Amino acid sequence: MQSNGDLITMFSSFQQTLDEEKVKREDIKQTVQSIEQKLREMIAILQMIHHKADEENIKSICAKVSERFPEVLTDLKELADKIPIGQYYKYNQQWSFAMQRLVFVLTYVHYLTTEQLMSRELVAGKLNLKLRWEDGFYLDLDDYLIGVLQVASELSRLCTNAVIAGDYARPSRIGIFLSDLDAAFRLLNLKNDHLRKRFDALKYDLKKVEEIVYDLSVRGLKASSSTDKPASNDSKTSTDETADAEMQ
């Protein structure tokens, strides 16, 4: 028969494990809070785009945000070093929201400078993250997709402010981008969870942009096809390289 002393010894060791786990989670929390604070500051800067949504102001704000990325990368590396390989999902709820916002900031700035979607591989590369959890601290697919959907919501808002700033061509380009993004997301078999709800919001974002483009067309304010064409592949490549250099 197991003695009372044996049980006391066993559960005392359990308490030690629980205490160590609590200390580790608190350590992770402090690093995540540092990341979240920096992200709040970066997002606050990005919001200034809506005050004056012209090309010059957008480029200036994107440059300011890009200058702050190295600070976030330092904290992100510190966080990654605290998570043992194979234990990502044991703690990931602590930083999942922050990671989604980080993806949003990175992909939003990339779109504003290139008018293209930043791939998951490129985002992971910029953040020095892996693509598979087995390899270590990585970029979760759900976090990437939710971050991208947040960009869609922000672009629908930008459409209105671009028109106010006299940029009648941008809404049409955003509309094409969101339409392509909507079609791409429809290829995914999303379950009824948070990601699915975020995707449902994309349909309303697209509808809002389409209404703005329609109103511009009816009022004769829509840009002509010659000024509304996307850049050529060569110019896109050049723009991508410039944007990537700014993110370094």
Q: What do these coordinates show?
A:
Residues 224-239 have low confidence and may be disordered. It contains 11 helices and no strands. By secondary structure, it is an all-alpha fold. Helix content is 74%, strand content 0%. It has helices spanning 4-47, 55-67, 69-81, 88-91, 96-114, 120-126, 141-164, 170-185, 194-218, 225-228, 233-247. It has 2 domains: 11-139, Translin, domain 1 (Methane Monooxygenase Hydroxylase, Chain G, domain 1, Up-down Bundle), CATH 1.20.58; 141-222, Translin, domain 2 (Methane Monooxygenase Hydroxylase, Chain G, domain 1, Up-down Bundle), CATH 1.20.58. The longest helix is centred in the first third of the chain and has 44 residues, at 4-47.
State the gist of this model.
The chain has helices spanning 4-47, 55-67, 69-81, 88-91, 96-114, 120-126, 141-164, 170-185, 194-218, 225-228, 233-247. With 248 residues, it is an all-alpha fold. The termini are far apart.
- Give the terminus-to-terminus CA distance: 65 Å
- Give the overall average pLDDT: 86
CATH architecture of the largest domain: Up-down Bundle
Structural class: mainly alpha
What is the 3D form? Answer: elongated
Q: What is the CATH superfamily label of the largest domain?
A: Translin, domain 1
> How much helix, percentage-wise, in residues?
over 70%
Strand segment count? 0
Number of helices: 11
Instruction: Note the quaternary state here.
Output: single chain
The radius of gyration is: 22 Å
Q: CATH first level of the largest domain: which class?
A: Mainly Alpha
Report the uncertain regions. Answer: 224-239
Q: How would you spell out the order of helices and strands?
A: HHHHHHHHHHH
Q: Tally the structural domains.
A: 2
Largest sheet: none
Query: Which percent range describes the beta-strand content?
Result: under 5%
CATH topology of the largest domain: Methane Monooxygenase Hydroxylase, Chain G, domain 1
